[in-house]
Amino acid sequence: MRKRAADRTAAHHFYGPSMTIAHLAEEPASARSGLDPLGVLVALGAIPGLLLPFAVFKANRIVPGEGVLLWEALPAFPAAIGLAWIVLCIIVALWRMPPAVKLAASASSLLVLLLLIGIAAQAMTPSGDNYARIGIGAGFWLLAFVLALMLTDALARLRPGPWLRLALLLTAWVAVGIILWSGAWDALSIVKEYGSRAPAFWQEARTHLFLAFGSVALATAIGLPLGIACYKFIALRAGALNLLNVIQTIPSIALFGVLIAPLAWVAANVPGASAAGISGIGVAPAMVALTAYALLPVVANTIVGLNGLPDATVEAARGMGMTWLQRLLQVELPLAFPVILTGIRIVLVQNIGLATIAALIGGGGFGVFVFQGVGQTAIDLVLLGAAPTVSLAFAAAVLLDSFIELSSKRATA
Q: Domains of the chain by range and CATH?
């Protein structure tokens, strides 16, 4: 009993009042044995990933195909090297190690995985067969997921600065670009789908970017003044936010459909509207709907950012004789900018994804390939639209997160 009391006292002094020997007893055995809990999760995901089909052989682009395991899809030497590398990465994940080691292991394993799927596609494609397709199997996706989870955890522990995060993002894009440029993925079905649709792909890419970034620009141009007005005139705030909340509750497809009739009427009855590109279907209703969805985060974050300013700072600016416009432009908006930019980040990532739905009303974008693929039961055509959408959303999130951090440091300097 005395020993237990002494242990409890020592733990109290060492860990603080919130940590006692009882808490230590509740710690999982993995923590005491040196196992990394997330590494155990990575290993549990990687094992079925190795046992699921790594690639899928299809006689043509629309048949379901037959799954092939990693060591069956690859020649003997690449299969041995790839398996050894992935297993080594799993071992690194299991044990508590410096985050830099885990980052290097997961990043290199992801690169090896990307190279292996290209080698597998080349090895599995019959010579002279122009109809066969090699798809990406569930095993590849599960391995890529758990390795990406390990990589993001290592990055979170390292806490890289904004410039380093941007450098890492650029490195990842360059690595994927080199793989595509080298032709390592040319035998993959998704790349063959791109090859037969390259002009259409880049046209829809421009449309997708126009819809996503154009709607965010319009929402910022409308939402920023509206948020400032709600900040200055409290009576306006409740009504504006309630209206924008109602818009957010409308499903995206329903909102696109609701806009068809009024915009068709405008195109038919307003001189010059049709010539300006306004119509019941196409880019116009998609742009209006995406802008409407983006307004609430922009307006709400503008109000929150301006309301959160220190009273002493605002009073000091007022004491210096600044007018309300001078205070707004020179003091309040610069200090609230990181919070406002957070709202813009939310709507940009959101609209990059929502722009996919615009294809249903003729708005174009990457959704064209997604819905064509669904209609043709061609999963690789779906991926041709989904993969760049996810990549764009991820890149936008990293870019704006870095800019938010940089602007926050500048605002507090």
A: 34-192 (no CATH), 198-412 (1.10.3720.10)
